[in-house]
């Protein structure tokens, strides 16, 4: 089991104050994160850009040394036993970089396999299996520079699995992948955990991906954990945080306006209205599910042409959660 | 040497070779540039033939051996240059994001550096062969005392240049801005290493500067073996100094590799480029 407690990481950054002048600034990237990854489970790590997800993953994968806190991976200490831990972890990051463009897919995997000192025959079998899994069999012996973005990313995934890691850290692995490949990867990720007992840490911007795959989810913002729970719990919070409604209606009388605004004030919600196609379009944003109340109120005064409840956005939920957290800290 | 080291050396040497020699044009270039350099070295000397400069050099190397002196200096310098360029190429791993992935693995770090250096041995060996054939064509009075001394000459180039290459490589591991070391070491090595000017002709301060470069002693040994047909006893001091420098560079490389990885883990600079 991977158990991290109070992980902290600061970066020293230089701030330019003129042509020759600069001052040193400490950036607290991760301010104390606890998390647990059990073998056979998929754990989600969610957060906006700059939340500290990648720094956390790099600490867990031994690329960065935590400034404070501790982490044990199957009883091994993350700092003292970093070399041993490297055998049982791997990381997959989204994007096209991090493979050798002039080498073929097979040559790339051979290279990384040899760095893990995998015996020749075993490495060959593993490469064949991985290349087939990521759908590169037909072009396995072509230079990577001729691959599409998605193909390069698929090679990244194969590379991340080359040492058959016990713990796998996946930093937005489906970013930019075609839907069928992303679906296959999700399926494969699930099977890696369920059938092969691997512990997986997954970061993603797609709430559906998190809901489908993760057993447990941590939400972090500005280096701090702001929430944790099962995907179901997270999804319900997301839904409550970021309800958006798009309504088209025939007219918007003064009487309706007055009642509408009074209602929105009571539920702490906002709206935006504009005239469109001989009627009106209203966008309502609310932290509560007010779909029923809205329909009831509007239909008393006007004809509703269309009513759409927008799918909640994870980003909005995280922003709301971080605002709530900041408010609680100020008023604690 | 542990199994990780051997595996890392092999993997890195093959990868670098495949990355660099990816087209037949590279092989064509390898055929052309040593020949061009050979001519460049010859014609750089030509205008000064019989001049005061030529006489100054002749005072140290002999009247009839100036071109041979420049030629074997160039061979030695280019041997080192190949390894330094190989180290320089490795610094691009940072840009492509693969440096992080190498450090993610339990690979032997020194093995990676050695593998990278060995990849350029192919280029250096080829260049050395072309130059030697050129030397044999131009000079009929060249002689080597024994085949053993030819082996000593080759080792005096290969081992120090590898040590120099891995040392430069380990410097590049510190940060993206260590390219300055390339500038600081490369040109002074060419100047003070005695590749084109006789080392004994330098003033004391330049001798001290040149003495720290392994090229100085490698070039000296190669010249003595090819131009004067010396035996092992005649180059004992040079070999000893060269060995000490190599050991020093090797130990410094080990230290730098350890420190640079610790520094990268502390600052996260491995991902910066």
Sequence-ordered SSE layout with sheet pairings:
The complex is a heterodimer of chains A (332) and B (273).
Chain A: E1 2-16, E2 22-37, E3 42-46, H1 53-60, E4 68-73, E5 76-77, H2 82-88, E6 89-93, H3 105-115, H4 120-133, H5 149-160, E7 167-171, H6 179-194, E8 199-203, H7 207-213, E9 216-221, E10 224-229, H8 231-241, E11 243-249, H9 254-266, E12 270-276, E13 279-286, H10 291-301, E14 304-310, H11 314-330
Parallel strand pairs in A: 3-8, 3-9, 6-7, 7-8
Antiparallel strand pairs in A: 1-2, 1-4, 4-5, 9-10, 11-13, 11-14, 12-13
Helix pairs in contact in A: 3-4, 8-11
Chain B: H1 3-20, H2 24-45, H3 52-61, H4 66-90, H5 92-96, H6 98-104, H7 109-119, H8 121-138, H9 147-172, H10 179-192, H11 204-211, H12 214-228, H13 236-267
Helix pairs in contact in B: 1-7, 2-4, 2-8, 4-7, 4-8, 4-9, 4-10, 4-12, 7-9, 9-12, 9-13, 10-11, 12-13
pLDDT < 50 runs, ≥5 residues of chain B: none
The sequence of SSEs of chain A as H and E is EEEHEEHEHHHEHEHEEHEHEEHEH
- Radius of gyration from the alpha-carbon trace of chain A, in angstroms: 24 Å
Number of helices of chain A: 11
Helix-strand makeup class of chain B: mainly alpha
Morphology of chain B? globular
**Beta strands of chain B, count:** 0
For the CA atoms, what is the radius of gyration of chain B? 19 Å
Q: Uncertain spans of chain A, ≥5 residues at pLDDT below 50?
A: none
Number of helices of chain B: 13
Proportion in helices of chain B = over 70%
Overall tally of structural domains of chain B:
1
N-to-C SSE series of chain B? HHHHHHHHHHHHH
Q: Could you tell me the strand content of chain A as a percent range? A: 25-35%
How far is the N terminus from the C terminus of chain A? Answer: 34 Å
Q: How many separate domains make up the residues of chain A?
A: 2
Query: Which homologous superfamily in CATH is the superfamily of the largest domain in chain A?
Result: P-loop containing nucleotide triphosphate hydrolases
CATH topology of the largest domain in chain A: Rossmann fold
